[in-house]
Design brief:
3-stranded mixed sheet; two-stranded antiparallel sheet; mainly alpha; 16 helices
Length: 406
């Protein structure tokens, strides 16, 4: 059991430190690109946009700008800059109650406790924070306005994948000026050498448009959301809940039900037992979907909340994220942006029938996420008012004491 950084949500990770280290080692460096390619190849030929393309450089520069704000998430105390912002200024978040820290190891905590009882001091060996820098891949797929994050661990063991359809949608919203000069990158040689035999690399267009500040802001909103999944290590949580916790709980419940129904099956014969087993398989599948739905839902909301902090500390207006996600609710070619891979053929209405029925079809996922994001921004303003009131009250008390002394 541990609390998620920045939000304080309790979660259960059933993976040993050694298993987590093995996952990180299997995705470090170029292994992340190979793993992502295997996932994408299941949907057909993969064509990527190389680093020499201006679109790749645009996305990379925006991602690096967001990465530079991560240290601000690690500080519990901050200056009063977030209190000095006026009503027309970009709002800044209050200091986090649960700052971003290396995740503690339960076994290490026990060892340090026993060492303390023996009068010895043992240094901590906490988990490392995943990244930065993060890996980046842009897939040339104009019919997909989507992105996803994948992986865990430092040294590029986690990263973001963006589909070109999203970039096309953002760039089509206005008419920026064009510049025929396309900057070149020194990464060309090693990129082509490493991935030339794996990916089909598309040629960059020329001349290219110069993205406006508004277009870069929309790109930053999407990247901040995906980056939040990586910062919060949602990949580990998904592995724990999807492969260990949920199947184990379902198996235990199924065994209890079959035990209670044993007298009935003993009387009416084995065909009843077979029917119960078949019903259990169907129910297990639906319950697994409910578990995955709940895990994904909480992670998406959590990523939205944390992405608002990343945007604000990077100089973007976090309030624009509300209108961004509202505009994407009914976009036909946009899928959910999450920490796991979603196939383009995934149909939430048909595949998650029971989950949607339990959660309520009148409140789709995006609507709930937007409301939670609005609530987070309101909380920033309320905490700011409370902090300002305390500062003013403290100042008045100090002046009153000084007058009484005189």
């Amino acid at each position: 059991m541990e609390q998620t950084p920045l939000t304080g949500r309790w979660r259960l990770i059933i993976l040993s430190p050694e298993e987590e280290d093995e996952i990180a080692a299997n995705l470090a460096g170029p292994k992340w690109y190979q793993a992502v390619h295997e996932i994408l190849a299941a949907e057909g030929p993969v064509k990527i946009i190389p680093p020499t393309d201006w679109r790749y450089q645009w996305v990379r520069n925006t991602l690096q700008r967001l990465e530079s704000s991560i240290p601000a998430l690690q500080q519990r105390e901050s200056d009063n800059q977030w209190l000095e912002a006026g009503p027309n200024d970009t709002p800044l978040p209050p200091p986090p109650e649960y700052p971003l820290r290396p995740r503690p190891r339960a076994s290490d905590t026990m060892r340090r406790f026993t060492e303390t009882l023996c009068g010895r001091v043992r240094p901590s060996t906490s988990h490392t924070i995943s990244g930065p820098p993060y890996s980046l891949l842009i897939v040339d797929r104009p019919d997909s306005s989507n992105a996803f994050s994948y992986g865990f661990g430092p040294d590029g063991g986690c990263g973001v994948v963006v589909y070109s359809g999203f970039l096309d949608d953002v760039l089509s919203k206005s008419f920026p000026s064009t510049d025929a000069a396309s900057s070149q990158s020194e990464e060309t040689s090693w990129w082509n050498h490493l991935f030339g035999g794996i990916f089909s690399i598309s040629s960059p267009p020329s001349p290219h448009p110069i993205p406006t500040h508004e277009q870069t802001s929309e790109l930053a909103i999407l990247l901040a959301h995906e980056l939040s999944h990586l910062i919060l290590s949602h990949h580990l949580e998904t592995l724990s809940s999807g492969t260990i916790i949920v199947p184990a709980m379902i198996s235990m419940v199924a065994d209890v039900v079959r035990t209670l129904l044993f007298p009935v099956t003993m009387i009416f014969g084995p065909f009843v037992n077979d029917a119960v087993a078949q019903l259990g398989k169907v129910g297990s599948g639906e319950l697994s979907k409910v578990g995955e739905y709940c895990t994904s839902m909480s992670q998406e909301i959590e990523a939205d909340v944390v992405s608002a902090r990343l945007l604000a500390h990077s100089g973007f207006d976090a309030r624009q994220a509300v209108s961004f996600w509202e505009s994407r609710q009914n976009t036909p070619k946009s899928a959910d942006c999450s920490s796991t891979i979603h196939s383009e053929s995934l149909n939430l209405e048909s595949g998650w029938t029971l989950a949607r029925r339990i959660m309520g079809s009148s409140h789709p996922v995006n609507e709930v996420r937007v409301e939670k994001l609005k609530g987070e921004l309101v909380r920033w303003e309320l905490e700011k008012r409370v902090a300002l009131h305390k500062l003013r009250s403290g100042g008045n008390e100090e002046r009153g004491q000084h007058l009484r002394i005189l």
